[in-house]
Design goal:
The protein has a single domain, classed as Jelly Rolls, CATH 2.60.120.10. The chain contains 2 helices and 10 strands; from the N terminus they run H-E-E-E-E-E-E-E-E-E-E-H. The longest helix has 18 residues, at about 5-20. It has about 160 residues and is an alpha+beta fold. A 5-stranded antiparallel β-sheet has the order 1-2-9-4-7, with no helix packed on it. Helices cover about 15% and strands about 35% of the residues. The protein has helices spanning about 5-20, 160-165, and strands at about 55-60, 65-75, 80-85, 90-95, 100, 110-115, 120, 130, 135-145, 150.
C-alpha cells in the first residue's frame, strides 16, 4: 500500500472516530465570548495518541470544518512516531520542553527543543515526530478542522494496535 493510500485510510478512520464521539468536553464556540480557566481544563484520551497522552478541546469542534484549539499533554518518555496532519497548525508550548523533528523517520538527532512560550508553525502535510524527552510537556495547537493525524507507518498508529489486541 502506498504512503498516500495509507494516509487516506487512516484519515478516514480518524474522521469516523471523531464523528462517533470521544467523550471530550465541548469546546468553547469560536463565535461567542467565553473563557476556560486552567483548573477547569478536562483531559481525555485520544485514540490516535499513545495511551498515556491526553487531549483537551478548548475551542471549536476538531471533527468539523472550522477553527479549533486543543491542548495536548504528553508524559515523560512518550514518543509520537512520524505522522502528518492535513491542516496547517500553530503550536504554542505551554509547559515543559517540546521536542519535535521533521521527517518520515524517527531520528533523535533531528529533534529541536522548544521551551515554554515558543511558537511553532507546521504546514499541513509536513511529516514530523515528537518525544517527551526531558519530561512532560503541554502544547496548545490551533488549526482549522477537521483535525487529522495520519502516521507515516500504519503499524505506528495506536488505533491499529488497539484493533490487534
Amino acid at each position: 500500500m502506498t504512503f498516500f493510500a495509507k494516509r487516506i485510510g487512516v484519515g478516514l478512520a480518524l474522521a469516523t472516530t471523531l464523528a462517533a464521539g470521544t467523550g471530550w468536553a465541548a469546546g468553547l464556540s469560536p463565535t461567542s465570548n467565553g473563557a476556560i480557566l486552567q483548573e477547569d481544563i478536562q483531559w481525555s484520551s485520544f485514540p490516535a495518541f499513545p495511551k498515556r497522552a491526553r487531549l483537551s478541546v478548548l475551542v471549536g469542534d476538531p471533527s468539523a470544518a472550522g477553527p479549533y484549539v486543543v491542548r495536548v499533554n504528553v508524559p515523560a518518555g512518550v514518543k509520537l512516531m512520524p505522522h502528518v496532519h492535513r491542516e496547517d497548525r500553530v503550536y504554542t508550548v505551554i509547559s515543559g520542553v517540546f521536542y519535535i523533528g521533521i521527517g518520515e523517520e524517527f531520528e533523535p538527532q533531528k529533534l529541536v527543543a522548544y521551551p515554554p512560550g515558543s511558537v511553532i508553525v507546521l504546514p499541513g502535510g509536513t511529516p514530523h515526530f515528537h518525544w517527551a524527552r526531558s519530561g512532560d510537556y503541554v502544547t496548545q495547537v490551533s488549526g482549522n478542522g477537521p483535525l487529522g493525524i495520519d502516521y507515516v507507518n500504519v503499524e505506528d498508529d495506536p488505533r491499529q494496535k488497539a484493533h490487534i489486541h
